[in-house]
Structures are given as C-alpha cells and as structure tokens.
Amino acid sequence: MSPRSASVNEELRRRSRERLLQATVELVGERGFEATTLGDIAQRAGVARGLVSYYFPGKRQLLQSAVHRLMHLTLQAALERAPRPSGPEAGRELLARAIDAILGLAHDRPLLMRTHLAGILTADGFIQCPEQQRLAQLLRETVVAYGSPDPEADYPLLRALLMGAAVAMLLPGASMPRVRLRAELFQRYGLDWELGEPHAAGEVQAPYRGDTP
Q1: Please, which residues have CB within 8 angstroms of residue 199's CB and are 6 or more apart in sequence?
Q2: 55 burial class (0-12, 13-18, 19+ CB within 10 angstroms)?
Q3: How far apart are CA 11 and CA 81, in angstroms?
Q4: Dihedral through CA 102, CA 106, CA 108, CA 112, nearest 10?
C-alpha cells in the first residue's frame, strides 16, 4: 500500500480538528465547561485523546476556537441565506442579518455563549485562531457592504457592540431582552426593523421607542 499523499494527510487533519471543535460545542452546551473533559471531547469526536493536545494548548483555547467556528458558520449561513441581498440596500440587509445571527446565538445557546464570553475575560485572553480570523473577515466584509468608509475602525466597533449585547442578554439576574437590544443596534445603524429576521423567536412586536406609548 502506497503512503498517503500530503494533501490527503492535510484533509484528514482538518477533519479531525473540525470534529473536535464540533464535539466541544455540543458537550459544553450540554454539560457546561467544568463538567466537560478533554477525554470526553475526544471520545465524542471519535479521535485519540492525544490529538486534542496536538491541536490545542488547553481546554479554554479549544472552546474559543469551537465557538468562533460556530459563530462563523452561523453568520455565513445568515449572510448567504436566500434570497441573497442585491441592489443599493444589500449592505443594510447584510448588517441586519449579522446582528440577528449573533444575538440569535446568545438567545439559543446561552450556556455555551456565557461560558465563551467568560473565558475571553480570563487570563487566557483572546485567541487569534483560524476560526476567529474567518469570523473577523465576514464581519469586515459586512461593514464594507454596509458602506463603511473605514472598515478597520468600524469592524472592531461592530464586534464590541455585538459582544456587549450578548453579555447584556446573558447577564445572570439582570439580562436584557433580545428585542430591546436589537432595537438599539438597529437604531444606531439606521436599519429598518423589517430587515434581517424580525420575527425570529417570536419577536413580532414593534421596536422599542423609549417612553413613547
């Protein structure tokens, strides 16, 4: 039997890494961070335990990469959802979809996203992994499509606003409703309420307008 080619080995490594990332999202979302071991993740992914340490220096780094992958895939699916936006208003629709996609993750996967955000604020810091870079690129492309004159400044601001909104949704005992945070973000960017996914998760009420009845 001839040895596998370099391209075949690279594809096998890519698939193993992605299985680990997917298993991490599933298990941490089900059990929480502390109750999930690296052995559990390897078993769910169907790979040898040693591969986890080969790809990732620790569990926190693995979790960040896993959630960044989930965010990237979720955002990509939202931006590419049919019908694809076109014409002069396409950028506004794409930005609305991006906002709804990230707020939707915080709403649908609270334990996972709360654990992820808490980890970013620890000494482990922010991981510049390939998954995070793909997510960043999508957000940059979105602000470019929106018409930003300075994407390198506006992308980090959008990222910060989305992270802040997610934290506000997930804050134990003092959480804010997604519909209110969506309204604030849409108002900031001048987006019509009907853009994106206004009816996601039963959000059918009108946008928040201060104290006006």
Answers
A1: none
A2: middle
A3: 27
A4: 120
Question: In terms of Cα–Cα distance, which of 94, 83, 78 is closest to 145?
Answer: 94
Average pLDDT for 47-61:
91
Q: How far apart are CA 63 and CA 32, in angstroms?
A: 11
Calculate the alpha carbon distances from 181 to 47, 82, 166, 187 in Å.
Answer: 40, 25, 9, 10
The burial of 84, by beta-carbon neighbours within 10 Å (0-12 exposed, 13-18 middle, 19 or more buried), is given as: exposed
Residue 10 has pLDDT above 80, yes or no: no
pLDDT bin (cut points 50, 70, 90) of residue 77 is very high
User: Which amino acid, one-letter code, is at 95?
Assistant: L
* pLDDT tens digits, one per residue of 109-144: 999 999 999 888 875 667 788 999 999 999 999 999
pLDDT value of residue 129: 87
DSSP state of 64: H
Give the H/E segment covering residue 153.
helix 151-170
Q: What share of residues in the chain are helix, strand, coil (percent, to 5)?
A: 70, 0, 30
